[in-house]
Amino acid sequence: MSPITIFQARRILTMAPSRPLATHVAVRDGRILGAGALEELSGWGPYRLETRLADKVLMPGLVEGHSHLMEGAFWRFVYCGWFDRRDPNGRVWPGAKTLAEVLERLRAAQATLPDPAQPLAGWGFDPIYFDNRRCVREDLDRVSTTRPVGMIHASGHIINCNSAALAAAGWLRSGIDHPGVPLGDDGLPTGEMKGPEAMMPVAGALGMDRGALAGDEAGLRLFSRLCVRAGVTTATDLASPLPDEALPMLRRVTGGDDFPTRIVPLLRLTGAPEPTIRRAAALQGQGSDRLRLGRVKIVADGSIQGFSARLRWPGYYNGAPNGLWYIAPEQLQQALALALQHGVQVHVHTNGDEATDAVLDGMEQALHAHPRPDHRFTLQHCQLADAAQFRRMKALGLCVNLFANHHYYWGDEHYRLTVGPERATRMNACATALAAGVPLAIHSDAPITPLAPLFTAWCAVHRLTASGRTLGEHERIGVADALRAITLGAAWTLKLDGEIGSIECGKRADFCVLDDDPLAVPAMQLKDLPVWGVVQDGRIFAAAELPTD
Amino acid sequence: MSVTPPIPVSIIGGYLGAGKTTLVNQLLRSAGSARLAVLVNDFGELSVDAALIASRDGNLLQLAGGCVCCSFGSDLMSALQQMRELQPRPAQILVETSGVARPDAVARTLGLVPGLRLDAVLVLADAEAVRERAADRYVGELVRQQLAAADIVLLNKCDRVGSAQIDALHRWLSEVAGAARIVACTRAEVHAALLCGGVDAAAARARRALSALPGGIAPRLQASGAAELFDSLSLEFAHAVQVQRLAEALAAPPLQLLRAKGLMRDADGRPHVLHVVGRRAGWEPAPQGPAARGRLVCIALRGQLQADRIRAALAACAA
């Protein structure tokens, strides 16, 4: 018989309805024997009492239902964001509040690069907070004229770069005519590259192209450290091309005794649906306890702040033309039907409400052709959904994972520019989702916003924007509901709620270890609650003891 | 300094189900030894005879005869760069867009890659379904935008609708797609020359002349059964030409030309190549050569070639 460990805690929030509070939890083989009082648990046989967490509060390991492993790899670049952000080593990088500070930070990082031709890349840049002072290539030329220098914006949709990066991409020339490449008075690109086509060659010159970042072992390890610091024990990678050659690495790294996170990568659908659905079905048996394969992600439209989301009438507040379909609605429906038929779970990115309608219509048709109870297909972001759409989600058995963090970072922009006050108020309508009975998760979309589910919960509870506006008073949800959304709620959307998301007999011994009780502290402090670390599969990972580099 | 002519690129657009893949499959079967590079989103629905595939390397299929087929997924830019660096250089690139792509946006992407020239935007329309699609709540606007971006609309699947309906579709398309030429077809069978800058099989002499021009590949393309649908006109002349003015005149709606290609000298004696595809007019400097006579080849749908007006335009544009 394997040994039993009983973890002693100050308090355990089990999130299990039959026994919400406990002081001890017994674990064998990485799974929970039970939560309760010590004398109840001792009946399982000889045990070792683990007292390291005796003054801590335990809750179920947090589940990040929409993040990207890329956040790990990004930390190899220079953080240039306006907000404070903690790196995988636990160091908090203060926000750079002016362009001058950003440039100074890049110059400081450059001092560590001996080769004058080696590229220097930054990320998280957010000039909307710089009073519309645009960054141009001459600004970054003041960092270096010899090496490619550039920064990807926090939104992920724009890169600013210097002359050397433009030259390396072959673009330091006149005569370019493309809406993603604005030109200066000299007829040359200003160095602000917008959209995938314009960004890609420059990203290549900067060493930050997506292909190079996917399947990156060091990035995966950095990502897992961020998870420990945020109390996360299960995180999605939404989505990945999952090349065959990356699978052995993913299995080896996640299977290591030192690896603290359960990773759920979703396979991104590109092109014709059938090959992707079949590949996902084939992947279902190829994972492990800490690598869950076999789900598919579909992207239906673009982003609201990039004006590429598909909106219903009356469209964008500033009159911008409607956005883009990233998949034809017929093909979307075909993919949903095939997935239902083959038992492959699908998560669909929609931002605009018209894209959400296309999924609802497609799902209705697909379910007629291939009924499948409890499919739990999930709408991701789904930011603009209205009450009627939530009611349809409920009727069709769909789940939703709303982008609560978005409100804080871009809510003011949505109010002022993209969708206007009324619809900005209803964006990411958590309260309406719950009222309609739609299974709810909330997310960070890291690296777009920081991986920190307690902050995400805080966002859903308060709906404050960066400027301090409460945007959508009536869509606020309670702390208990928000905590459920970042545990059982997200686990439900992954069909893992029978294994994780609460602390009860039979489930994985995945705990988030906190210094204080999130239900007892003032709700405004939820985001600042110190995370001590995690227990994952019964193994203790203290944030303070993580390897650093 | 020698002028390396840019590689012509044609965009094949149109909504899902319009016949893009059928067209590409046919083209690859009939391309023979023409050095075509065909870019597709993915190999998913491609039906290339296994016997035809000489080798496969990642996203690149090398076909017997010299064609290549490349899947670009979500990164058209890289694929175009890759095609530009191929040895030997492709004579023509064809890009099959995804059903939800806007051809005008793809055309702008081409402009970001040096050494390429947009030859034509061809948009397929399903005669049976296009009007319904164009009124669809989700994609209607997109379908109309796609058609509006066309230089030539290939009205496909015409065997499935009656002639009265085809007439009505012509009238409707002339509103939605403006000055674009409209070519009716079935099973996406159109002469490869329409896509790749050649002329019809009936004008063999003209084609020989054309093959001497930079980038001329028509003679190596096998004629498809649709060849008899076209008329062509080949002209030789001694005088210099206002190249831009002539190109624009040939692209103007009244002439209804599908394609024109010419080699001529401007007022300063510099040689130029002229291309017209549907409503799109293009011209560029050509390599210096012996001071030959100017040549111009034009094709239009059978019965629509207006030889007198073409001659008049040429005369009016003498430099």
Whole-number radius of gyration of chain A? 23 Å
* CA(first)-CA(last) distance of chain A: 39 Å
Number of strands of chain A: 23
Count of individual helical segments of chain B: 10
By CATH, the superfamily of the largest domain in chain B comes out as P-loop containing nucleotide triphosphate hydrolases
Shape of chain B: globular
Low-confidence segments of chain A, given as residue ranges, are none
Low-confidence stretches of chain B: 198-226
> What is the CATH topology assignment of the largest domain in chain B?
Rossmann fold
What does this structure look like?
The complex is a heterodimer of chains A (549) and B (319). The model of chain A has no long low-confidence stretch (mean pLDDT 95). In chain A, helix 9 links the parallel strand 14 and strand 15 (262-268). Chain A is α/β, with parallel strands linked by helices. The radius of gyration of chain A is 23 Å and the shape is globular. In chain A, the strands form 4 sheets. In chain A, strands 1, 2, 3, 4, 5, 21, 22 and 23 form an 8-stranded mixed beta sheet that branches. In chain A, helix 14 packs antiparallel against helix 15, helix 14 packs across helix 17 (453-462) and helix 17 packs across helix 18 (479-493). Chain B has 319 residues and is α/β, with parallel strands linked by helices. Chain B has 2 domains: 7-190, Rossmann fold, CATH 3.40.50; 197-316, Hypothetical Protein Yjia, Chain: A,domain 2, CATH 3.30.1220. Helices cover 28% and strands 27% of the residues of chain B. Chain B has 10 helices and 14 strands. Chain B has helices spanning 20-30, 76-84, 103-110, 130-134, 140-148, 163-176, 192-196, 204-211, 243-251, 307-316, and strands at 7-13, 36-40, 53-57, 60-63, 68-71, 92-96, 116-126, 152-156, 181-184, 230-237, 259-265, 271-277, 280-285, 294-301. In chain B, strands 3-4-5-2-6-1-7-8-9 form a 9-stranded mixed beta sheet, sandwiched between helices. In chain B, strands 10-14-11-12-13 form a 5-stranded antiparallel beta sheet. The radius of gyration of chain B is 19 Å and the shape is globular. Chains A and B meet through helix 6, helix 11 and helix 12 of A and helix 2 of B.
